[in-house]
Amino acid sequence: xxxxxxxxxxxxxxxxxxxxxxxxxxxxxxxxxxxxxxxxxxxxxxxxxxxxxxxxxxxxxxxxxxxxxxxxxxxxxxxxxxxxxxxxxxxxxxxxxxxxxxxxxxxxxxxxxxxxxxxxxxxxxxxxxxxxxxxxxxxxxxxxxxxxxxxxxxxxxxxxxxxxxxxxxxxxxxxxxxxxxxxxxxxxxxxxxxxxxxxxxxxxxxxxxxxxxxxxxxxxxxxxxxxxxxxxxxxxxxxxxxxxxxxxxxxxxxxxxxxxxxxxxxxxxxxxxxxxxxxxxxxxxxxxxxxxxxxxxxxxxxxxxxxxxxxxxxxxxxxxxxxxxxxxxxxxxxxxxxxxxxxxxxxxxxxxxxxxxxxxxxxxxxxxxxxxxxxxxxxxxxx
Length: 383
Ligand code: KG4
Ligand code: ZN
Fold this sequence. Notes:
Layout: E1 2-7, E2 12-22, E3 26-37, H1 39-43, H2 50-71, E4 77-78, H3 85-94, H4 99-111, E5 114-115, E6 119-125, H5 129-146, E7 150-154, H6 155-161, E8 174-179, E9 184-191, E10 194-200, H7 206-216, H8 223-233, H9 258-270, H10 273-276, H11 279-307, E11 312-316, H12 323-336, E12 341-343, H13 355-363
Parallel strand pairs: 1-6, 6-7, 8-11, 11-12
Antiparallel strand pairs: 1-2, 2-3, 4-5, 8-9, 9-10
Helix pairs in contact: 2-4, 2-5, 6-13, 7-8, 7-9, 7-11, 8-11, 11-12
Residues 155, 159, 180, 317, 352 line the site of zinc ion (ZN).
């Protein structure tokens, strides 16, 4: 089965084509994939502006798709007949809110070849509503013009399923920790597709907290990888910065990170302007902030894994690209949960991508839908 996937839930324009082969084990071949980052656009604001992100998706989707199709190996590509007037009218309706896409899609569809895929996977939520819609309307237009069904995908489920690359299989029950710029959730997975969100952040997501701290410290965007780099450079703690570990001893599986960001802000404000730029101060602050987040994430994940007696822990989302989080969690699992498998995606599939969307769609391959039936659900829940 060949799947073309589109993911625009946040600030990356992602398209991929994968092939799922069911031999003895499930095997996914990635035929082509692109993640077109908008970091340059959002960098100056220190965070994502949904309207700017939507506009960038409109601009990027066709060139990204063109390149993905051109690069895809091992796939048939067919030319299409000229688009009829009646089809153009339907298309106009589908893309009424995406004028830039509408202008370019007719030319694209007539000039480019259609890849022979069995379905188009599309992220319908959770995510930024304007961003979700632009991807969805593009997918609906392609579905209509190419006559290929759509498979709606939950973005969080995609972050979980990407762990099944390279012939892997989950052992259930499992706990998934999904940590990104938009989400921090602990999910109990009893069996395939049987989810229960057991804990989540009450305010900021972990990645959002890192992004805001980086902005306070004047380090740029996205915060997570920059803070990780600065933290790595710390040789010894000399200033004695000590930040809170919010909710670390609470009996539930919830998180809260906005207080941590405020604690950083207070500390930063009380320093002199020259000290605020001091290399050692920045490094120690980054180290301490990152460690505070890691401590809470690990404590709650291990607690959930023990309480629910799971066989696997699954990581996903942009923050799971953090090497310290990966290493410290691996160590804790080895020490305290010897019979538990730990799944961590390859770094490039921790952050948003369309390969994960395609894999998740494969597990919902029987739930194909016509383009009229698909809409964005910004707060889509997994359970
Ligand atoms: O999953 P993702 O690409 O997009 C969302 O769905 O939000 O996650 C982006 C988030 C950003 O907040 C970014 O700062 C964080 O993931 N991030 C990291 C790392 N790489 C990205 N956080 C910590 N360490 C990293 N290496
Ligand atoms: Zn994500």
